[in-house]
Amino acid sequence: MEDSSRSTGQTVCVTGASGFIGSWIVRLLLDRGYSVNASVQNLQDPRETDHLKSMDGAESSRLRLFQIDLLDYDSISRAVRGADGVIHVASPNIIDRVSDPEGELLRPAVEGTVNVLRAAKENGTRRVVVTSSISAIIPSPGWPADVVKGEECWTDVDFCKDNEIWYSVSKTLAERAAWEFAKENRLDVVVLNPGTVTGPIIPPTINASMSVLVRLLQGCTDEYEHFYMGPVHVKDVALAHILLYENPSASGRHLCVESIAHYSDFAAKVAELYPEYKIPRFPKDTQPGLLRAQNPSKKLIDMGLNFISMEQIIKDSVESLKEKGYIS
């Protein structure tokens, strides 16, 4: 996808702007001439704000920072006010959680999403792009074994609750709540479902997906059976958000992965590219019932997104981890 499209003085509100994906979205929006209302959790924490303030375009008053709490509607409303569009990235992001006491994970994910959409509706926002996940697509044990999983496939929430896969529960319920709100309130909503997002790091901390790669390079043998569907470069994820915002014909869900692959495929490619690390060998299929597929994100490809290859994703990710000091 070429970065030829430019904003005409529009303002986009990005929630979760300080994070791995959010900071890339902010950077690319500023590059394209947009103004950005960027939300963070704590305006007093330089780890959330300094990397945003240092971006090209931020010094021109096109970047405004807001502190929000997903359960505090008024704080969200202040950030959304005056925005032509909203890209809602913020969500609890703990994939190895084994419990969810008192809805600690579910409430911000579900109620927070509804709060953002309500603020967008009341503000007259023309479109909202919601960041969901492949965790709202898998695990889905009831899906036909001979059919490639895509936008029509939904995570089995009861299965996830029984197996305490709370992150998948949170992403699935949050996305369903978004679609319900959009239908009831006639709000223009589109959804992106990224896979395992890695690549160059902008914030001073790393996200869960990059932590998975660090652990793999350190010899971790976890297979992430219920959390892996395929890799995607963080820049492609950011571009996909902007593409969905800018394309009036975009609708529905959008799978966002370079390929549908097993975690063992990814690990084998890491081992091939970086033999100096002790990468564990995995069984051929680490994701039972997942059919491999090339170019599965057809909706995004048809809109002009050219996905970065798995090999380049790994190289960019590992080199960034080295540069930032997370691995030697």
TrEMBL record:
Coiled coil: none annotated. Pfam families: Epimerase (PF01370). Residues 12-251 form the NAD-dependent epimerase/dehydratase domain. It comes from the Eukaryota. One of its GO terms (molecular function) is oxidoreductase activity, acting on the CH-OH group of donors, NAD or NADP as acceptor. The keyword Mitochondrion does not apply. Keywords: Oxidoreductase. SUPFAM superfamilies: NAD(P)-binding Rossmann-fold domains. InterPro entries: Epimerase_deHydtase (IPR001509), NAD(P)-bd_dom_sf (IPR036291), NAD(P)_dehydrat-like (IPR050425). PANTHER family: CINNAMOYL-COA REDUCTASE-LIKE PROTEIN, NAD DEPENDENT EPIMERASE/DEHYDRATASE. This is Cinnamoyl-CoA reductase 1. The gene is CCR1.
